[in-house]
Amino acid sequence: MKTFLKTILIMLFASALSLSAEEPTPPAPDQQLSSLITGLGAEKFETREESQAKLIELGKKQYDLIIRNCVESFKENKDPEIRARLKTILRTLVLEKNFRKKGFVGISMANSGEQIEIENGKYNPVNIVNVVPDFPADKNGFMTGDQILKIDDKSCGPGFQSNDIVEYISAKKPGTKLKFLLISENKPVTRELEITERPELPGEPKVEELQDAFFNKWFKENLKSQEKQQQKESAQ
Fold first, then answer.
1. Is residue 1 part of a domain?
2. Which of these, 80, 90, 95, 196, is most buried using a 10 Å CB contact count?
3. Residue 166 is part of a domain; what is its CATH number?
């Protein structure tokens, strides 16, 4: 009986080894990426779409790896279908990770040309010449005629005037809180607000145009960087 049970156990163990050996080995990351990139030019439309979707999904988890491989493949591949899809993948991932609408508070400004001293500080105040209704500045008590002395730790002076303020606010992510020191009705006051997204205003580029310009600039710079890297490796 013991011999019989021993024989069965040996047979089961051998079967398990056999099944284990037959299981396919998952592809290495490089093999998987190569297969997906090749799939972008597959004969079947469904395969092309599936490969593109999988690369985008992978890119959300392993951004640097997918970006690097897609840029390299774009440089090396001559298939127009693959190149077009690689560019679409890159655009999707780059914009999702890096592009954001400009911050906006809803004020128009002009340099005052003055210099004042208040609260132990010297300032070149920036005049608020218009407050847009229903935007953060309006909702937080800013008024036309107020003067900006300071935003966060940046004092208004020769190196921080109206254009610099616009750039400072625009670069902030919507939802960021800002602290302003103002002169309002001849008194220094502190006001805080939360930045919102810059709306599409008449005469300004559409969001799609801004996205195109942002990605095209990124794409050219990264292709050049890839070329320089290849030249460096070839010279070694």
1. no
2. 90
3. 2.30.42.10
The token pair at 148 is: 């900006």
Side-chain half-sphere CA neighbours of 42 within 13 A: 16
Question: Are residues 90 and 146 both part of a single domain?
Answer: no
Structure tokens at 133: 């209704």
**AA identity, residue 177:** K
Query: Is 23 within the bounds of a domain?
Result: no
Note the pLDDT tens digit of each residue in 124-166.
999 999 999 999 999 999 999 999 999 999 999 999 999 999 9
State whether 112 and 192 are in the same domain. Answer: yes
Q: What is the pLDDT of residues 9-36, one digit of tens each?
A: 444 444 444 444 444 545 447 788 899 9
Q: How far apart are CA 124 and CA 117, in angstroms?
A: 9
Bin 134: left if φ > 0, else alpha if -120 < ψ < 50, else beta: left
3-state secondary structure 175-195: CCEEEEEEEECCEEEEEEEEC
Give the largest Cα separation in the chain, rounded.
105
Strand locations in 28-160, DSSP E?
A: 103-104, 107-111, 116-118, 121-123, 126-131, 147-151, 154-155
Phi, psi of 178 (to 5 degrees): -120, 145
Nearest to 41 by CA among 64, 74, 7: 74
Q: Could you list the residue range(s) of the whole structural domain that residue 33 is in?
A: 29-101+207-229
Q: Does 121 share its domain with 187?
A: yes
